[in-house]
Structure formats: C-alpha cells, structure tokens
Design brief:
single chain; about 170 residues; mainly alpha; Serine Threonine Protein Phosphatase 5, Tetratricopeptide repeat; 9 helices; about 65% helix; globular
Length: about 170
C-alpha cells in the first residue's frame, strides 16, 4: 500500500489521525505531484484535489483555507466513477467547526440534490441536536433510519440515531 500511488490519500488520513504530521507532509508531496497515470487520455475532475487540500487545511487548523478549498471543490463536477461525490464536504467541515446554522443550510442543499443521502440526513440530525432543536433532530434521525432501513444494526450512526429516538 505504501508504494501504490492510488492509496496515498488513505495513508495521509491515517497519518493525520495518528498525529504523525511529518509522514502526512511527506505523503502530501506525493499526492499533489503530477501522476504518471491518466484517465484514458482525459483529465480527471479537480473536485478531489480541492477536497484533499481542504481536508488537510481543516486538520491543520487552517479554517479559512479549508472552507475556500471545499467551496472550490463543489464548483467542479464529481467523477462519475467515484462512489462518494463528496457533495457534503463543506457541510461536514462547517459541522466540525461548530458552525451549526451554516452546516444545516449546506446539508439541506445536499439533501435537495439527493434526498436519499443517509449520512447527510444523519449529520443534519446531529447539527439540530447540537443546537438544542430536539424536535427537528428527532425528525431527521427518523428520516435517516427510514432512508437507511436496511443498514446493519451495529453501524455507529444507526446505534446513535436509535438511542436518541429511544431517549426522546
């Protein structure tokens, strides 16, 4: 995995979560260097490059740079072959920064694009919960569980949502 260019991003996330900034910096150079790989002759979307920069900025406490990169990421279309379009990257960053009103507005934008996006619905519930809006949080958790009704019962988000609803 360390030698495979396709796994550099995952290694950066692991290094940052472990607090190993030196390794993350070294890997960041590889991530942002020009790759010898092509996408069948076409250039890939810059969405992921801006997302990666935003994530790294956010984890390094560079809030404004992170938000700028997430905004820029969303200006570019996601790759059709990627499972996660990262449409919720800005909403997740705003939530992490404790900017709950902005996180709610951005998550609602994401849900207008895809009302069946379970994790966006879950994060919306969490933002309402943080704001003390228990009625809205409960409704969002219920919608999350309905949207993801076939999810495994031990997935942490499912456990949290069920616990919240059960304690309501």
């Amino acid at each position: 995995m360390k030698e495979n260019e396709f796994h550099v991003w995952e290694l950066i996330v692991i290094a940052m979560e472990r607090g190993d900034r030196a390794t993350a910096e070294k890997l960041k150079e590889r991530l942002f260097s020009e790759s010898g790989f092509t996408n069948r002759g076409s250039r890939g979307t810059p969405r992921y490059r801006f997302y990666h920069r935003g994530y790294i900025n956010l984890k390094n406490g560079q809030t404004e740079e992170a938000l700028e990169n997430f905004h820029e990421a969303l200006r570019h279309s996601p790759a059709t072959y990627e499972l996660d379009p990262l449409e919720d990257c800005l909403a997740n960053a705003l939530f992490e920064l404790g900017r709950f009103d902005e996180a709610i507005a951005e998550t609602e934008r994401v849900l207008r694009l895809n009302p069946n996006y379970p994790l966006a619905r879950f994060h919306l519930a969490q933002a309402y919960e943080q704001k003390g809006q228990s009625t809205e949080a409960r409704a969002a958790y219920e919608q999350f569980l309905q949207t993801w009704k076939n999810a495994d019962a031990d997935i942490p988000e499912v456990v949290i949502a069920k616990k919240y609803i059960g304690n309501f």
